[in-house]
Structure formats: C-alpha cells, structure tokens
Amino acid sequence: MNHDKIKFFWDRYLGLLCKGGCRTTMRNPLKEFETQARAGSFDDLTDEQYHKARIEAAEISVFWNNRPVDNVGHILLNALSKTEISDAARDKIADILATASLNTNYHSHESEMPYDKDEWEDADGLTPFDDDDILHWTPRNIYDFLNHHIYGQDAAKRAASMLVYHHIHGNSRNILMAGPTGCGKTEIWRTLSKICDCVKIINGPQLSCDGWKGSYHIKDIFLEEQPQKAENLIVVIDEADKLFEPAIGSGGTDYSYMLQNELLKIMDGDVLTFVDENRKGVTLTIDCSGVSIVFCGSFERMLKEKNAASDSIGFCSYQKESTIAECNEEDLIQYANVRKEIAGRINQIITLDTLVASDFEAILDSPSSPIKKLEKAHHVSLSIDENIKKALAFNAAQSGLGCRYIRSKLQAMLDEQMFDTPEKQKFTLCMSI
Fold this sequence. Notes:
Low-confidence stretches: 108-131, 311-325
Helix content: 40-55%
Distance between the termini: 38 Å
Strand order of the largest sheet: 4-7-10-3-12-11
Radius of gyration: 24 Å
Structural class: alpha/beta
Shape: globular
Oligomer: single chain
C-alpha cells in the first residue's frame, strides 16, 4: 500500500471516530471506483494510470470485507485487526491514549451524539446518516444527503429524492431534467450513485440502434449487470437531448426514432430478451417493470422556444426558485424531437435554474466546493485569492460551461503549481486567468 494513501485513510477515519461518527456509513472504495469508471470519470487516464488507481482502491477496500458499505467503527476495527503492530508501537499508542484520558470527562455524553451533518465533511461516499440501509431512508433523508453535495436546484433534488425513494420501494418512474450545461443535473445522480448501487449513468450520444456492430446499445446497459440488478436499475441517460436529435440516414430513416422505439419497450415495463453479440449463445431476459429512466440534457432549443412564448421565464436571466413542469410533454414533442409515446411515459419534467456568477461564488465556498474535491483528490491544501474566485465565477457564468469550467481551470492552476514541486502539501492558486 502507498504510505500517504493509507495515512490519509487512518487520519480521516480516526478523525470521524473521534467526532462521534462511529456509525457513519462509508462506501467501499472499490465499489465507488467501479461506479465512477462506469460513469466515464477515468476515461482520460492511460491504461497504466487506471490500473494503478484501481489497485489502490482494491487495497483499501479489504477493510470492508466485501460489503458495499460499512460504518466507520466496523471499518476501523477490521483494519486494526488486520494490521501488524509491534509491542513497542502498541505501548506507545496506549500511552498516547492514557495521556489523553487524563483530560477527558468520560461522563459527558457528547461523544455519543450523532454526527452533525452541518459539520460533516465528504469522504469517499460517506453519508451523514447512521443507518447504512437506504431502504430505511425517507425522501427527506435522501434530499438532505443531496443538499450537502449540490448547491441550489431545490426542485431537481426533491424530484430525484422522490424517484429514488419510490424506485427502491418497487415503484419505477421516468423523469426528465432540462437545464444548461454545468447546472448540476448529472452531478445529482453521480452523488446519488454513492448511496444507491442501482443508479447507472450512461452517455446518451454513444447509444446506437441494435444491430450496429462495434457500438454501444441499449441492451448493453443490462447485459453488463447481473440479472437481479439489471431488473432494478435507475438508468440515467446523460445528454439525452443529443440522443433525441433527428439522425436521418441516406434512405430517409430517422435513427433517433428507432432508438426511441427500443427505449419505449423498457419504459412500458416489457419483458425483453437481449442477445449478447460478443458471447455467442448468451442471452438475458429482463423484466423491465422495475427499471426507471432519467433523461438529463440541456434541451436548449426547447427551453429557448418555450421562453420566447412566455415572458414569465427567461432562459438566461431568471433567478427564481426552480419550478416543476415549466415545460410539458407537448414541448418535448414539438421542440426536442421526442416521440409522443415517449413523452407520454415521462412522469415529471424538471427545469433546473440557470446559475449566475453569484451562484458559482457560493459554490466555491460551499461544502461541495470543487476546491475541496481537488484537495481530497490530490491530498493537498489549497488557498485561492478571492479575486480569482470572483473571476472564475464570472467566467463560468459567461462561458455557459458552469462548474465544468471551474473544475478545469482549478486543475490547470494546480498543475502549473505542482509541475516543479509535486511533493508540496500546500499550494496557492493565484495565477492570472
């Protein structure tokens, strides 16, 4: 194991334990790695970098005993039982604890209080709830978890919470989230995938009709999973608006409609048999009645056309709270090339807020700040000039790229600082942008 990585593990988990987070659940790092890999988070890595990152996740995951999640207390006890500690080292640890004990009032019950979610810091899928079984969570629990990670977008977080709640209790739903790039649509579902293994995020534009060799098909979404999991997926189709765009072939066939035909069978809850073209004779029969579909996309043309017809909504300027169903099924059909049969099976349409510069400033200072995520990813401490923050926020709003712009710029600034001194633990990001 890498010394710095395992030291970070012990430091973070002991810190949580000492703050009353004994029962706080932590997601298995290997499971988290695999979820992120399916979402395309590591597509830019070389094979060697990917393999190294996976090995590191697998090494730490041994403390979970193959559980997808476990609480901090169990993980630490398991790690301790697997760690070879000399008598001298154990005596030193005992001495440290004895000294600390002299200054501790063990009659106080403060250490037994549940971990305060307002002070909670994210750590590899950590949740602020004592119960690690999401089946016991209420929609409010799920919403609170999202609220810690995602800034704003109240209606979208509520809708996502309700879909997850209903889905895990056997009632599938289909929803559509429309909003500009970088406003948090995909991030909502990426965050939910940390606590809900059934969330599977795929890239809409990569989907092609069944029968096209070498392509990624809708059936591949299910063939990649075990049958029981495949029948209970929440399939999140990112950039779905690109999937719906007309794709007219030389013979006049709209391949987008053909793809929608395949989606329609799933949304209808049909029992489908998929043939694995890569493994001869292998088939998978799936009851799709337990599958939920989430369409995420900018749907820019639809929103612009809709807003042009109503002075009450401004695509680039309104700052009110998110509202549900600003667009309806007819808008999807008229402006987004969505088939009537598909639109009629979408239970809810959510329009997300357009984020402005002040929103991005708030995000940079929030618990879910890209700065904090960068610190955790590289195990460093970062400081950044307030003027740089304001410039980043302004440019993120102007560029239309949202948080993606901020993340890429922060990473570029850190890379510049790390180029000559990668071993440093503290960096000041202050280059001109």
